[in-house]
Amino acid sequence: MAMIPIGVVIRTRNSAQYLSESLQSVLDQSLPPTQVVVVDGASSDATLDILALFKDRVRVIAQQHQGLAGAAQDGVDALDTPLIAFQDSDDIWPAGRLATMAEFLIARPELDGVMGRVEHFISPDLNDEQAALFDVPSGPQPGAGLPSLLVRRRAFEKAGPFLDGLTAGEYMEWHDRAVSAGVQIQAVDNLALYRRVHLNNFSRSPSSKQAYIKALRAVLQRKQNR
Questions:
Q1: Per-residue pLDDT tens digits for 132-185
Q2: Which partner from 137, 155, 156, 168 sits 20 to 30 angstroms from 80, CA to CA?
Q3: Ramachandran area for residue 67 (φ above 0: left; ψ -120 to 50: alpha; else beta)
Q4: Which residues does residue 119 pair with via DSSP β-bridges, in sequence order?
């Protein structure tokens, strides 16, 4: 089966510690992406130095819109591929992830996207005391965010862009609009992501919880207006 060109959006900010491994897991796929855009949110560590090592294989752009949602949208806008995948710069793609998900999606033209499963792991750089702070589920879990998604561009034409300014819950808010617009995204059993659990995960911050509440309020408000 002929594969359709695939673009990848990678969001990063001060991710030098894990960036190389994350990028390499995308570039080493058996079905390599056609385009890779890294959206940098004004990193002040060695992130840009590391990205310079990959300059022949990735395109780096400065983030223009706000929040994680804005970074995702900047990346979508910078690509021209009919299929789009997402990655965060501390996570890892399993081998064969892109080929398996693309083959599934291409074989089902009625679908707008597929959502794979996620396996969490404690980052090896954490010591025993730090690792004990986390309760990590074992085995693959249902995906619920952008890094485990492969989607057709037409989904954004139906549902619109990500909500500028959201720093968490961006997929939840967009998915609610997408469902209302008739976008069909199917969950699949394929493993799509190894999610790294570490001390600086944004989802642990108080501002992340506030952002999720903002996204949830937007969803609830739309449901009331329907």
A1: 999 889 999 999 899 999 999 999 999 999 999 888 889 999 999 999 999 999
A2: 168
A3: left
A4: 194
The separation between CA 72 and the C-alpha centre of its own chain, rounded to angstroms, equals: 8
On whether the CB atoms of residues 192 and 118 are closer than 8 A, the answer is yes
pLDDT above 70 covers a percentage of the chain that reads: 88
Alpha-carbon distance of 196 to 163, in angstroms, equals: 25
CA–CA distances in Å: residue 82 to residues 59, 62, 150, 190: 18, 23, 11, 21
Q: CA 190 to CA 140: how far, in whole Å?
A: 9
What gap in Å lies between CA 168 and CA 144, rounded to an integer?
12
Using the predicted structure, report yes or no on whether residue 207 has a pLDDT greater than 60. no
Question: What is the residue-averaged pLDDT of the chain?
Answer: 91
148, 186 Cβ separation under 8 angstroms: no
- How confident is the model at residue 224, as a pLDDT? 66
Rounded to 10°, the helix 206-225/170-180 angle is 10
Would you state the pLDDT for residue 202?
55
- The two most distant CA atoms of the chain are separated, in Å, by 50
Going by DSSP bridges, is the β-strand pair 35-40/59-62 parallel, antiparallel, or unpaired? parallel
- Specify the residue for token string 């952002």: 211
Phi-psi region of 34 (alpha: psi -120 to 50; beta: other; left: phi over 0): alpha
In the block, residue with structure tokens 């992130």: 47
